[in-house]
Amino acid sequence: MIAMIREATGLSNSMLGLLTTLPLVAFGVLSTLTPLFTRRFGIEKTLSGALLLLTVGIVLRAFGYIPLLFLGTILLGIAIAFGNVLLPALVKRDFDKRSGFMTSLYSGMMGVGAALAAGLSVPIAESFPGSWKTSLGVWGLFSFLAFLVWVSQNKFSVPTNSKRSFKKAMKDLGSNALAWNVALFLGLQSIAFYVILAWLPDILISKGFSSSEAGWYLSLSQVTGVLGSVLVPVIAAKKDDQRKYISALILLEALSLIGLWLGTNATVFLWVSGIGFSLGGSFGLALLFIVLRSSDSETATELSGMSQSIGYLLAATGPILIGAVFDITGDWDTALYILFMILFFKLYTGLKAGKAQAI
């Protein structure tokens, strides 16, 4: 979609890069503040407000007016930040005994929704009047439908009457080693995910694949990622300790990165699939840790806010860092080295977060 927007608006690549980064920045800045809203309005009403704000943000972008394009992107980033934080808390509160299944269900649906939007946005832009503006705006129908379905839950919304202040809660989490390991595992996983999302096609093109083939391989990684995010949490939640699942996923990712670096073009589909599955499974586990390592739904909300703030601020640096490294070296192998080195830190934090304990 970027090429269409650039041609129609005249925005520079730097401004378009900012446009795509704004949601991640919103995730990082707003996630920690989400418990302030649940303390006043409760989870259900906060989610209703987020869905309505999401719809407004999407509609504003569809006008095609540059200031509204940026404003709408900021608003939808804020709205998604609320949803990101509150879904693990909702699972903890209402589905504590089925946390693995529910985490698999919603993380898998996030992947399916993202894959559908990625696959259909360009065909919609090419097939309907309004081009890219129609394609950006049509997704507001789905968020508004979700709002209409969800708003009936508002009658159950109860403000969180906490005995501790928000400031004390954040201070306590900030001094808790387990909370930091959960947060850093999510962040390191997100760095790898967004680097692959941004640069895998370029890495494959440098190895001789066409742009079309590289795009299909990116889609393959997304599909296997959905499979990982669905299967891993529901299996891992059956055990109190998830460290062996962390080790297996990190090993799979390591082998896949080595294969992508040294393997032949004929075996690329194996390595792309392995990277996708391991990253999807790690994402599902990171969300599951927020549920399993929290003693109650209030703690889950606060831990989710902290984890996703740190996680997405780290994630926002990944594609920029790897792009800069390529500009300096002219070599995508260096990017793969960096992802491989990150694995050691991800393994360390994952093993700490995967141990059976609670905040």
Rg = 20 Å
In total, how many domains does the architecture comprise? 1
Could you give me the name of the CATH homologous superfamily?
MFS general substrate transporter like domains
Shape: globular
* Count of DSSP H/I helices: 15
CATH topology: Growth Hormone, Chain: A
The profile of the biggest β sheet is: none
Distance from N terminus to C terminus (CA atoms, Å) equals: 43 Å
Number of strands: 0
What is the name of the CATH architecture? Up-down Bundle
Give the low-pLDDT segments.
none
The amount of helix comes to over 70%
What is the mean pLDDT? 90
Strand content: under 5%
Structural class: mainly alpha
Helix-strand topology string: HHHHHHHHHHHHHHH
Structure description:
It is a single chain. The chain is mainly alpha-helical and 359 residues long. The protein has a single domain (2-156, 163-353), classed as Growth Hormone, Chain: A (Up-down Bundle). It has 15 helices and no strands. It has helices spanning 2-9, 13-30, 34-41, 43-61, 66-94, 99-127, 131-137, 140-150, 166-174, 177-206, 211-236, 243-262, 268-292, 297-329, 332-353. The termini are far apart. The model has no long low-confidence stretch (mean pLDDT 90).
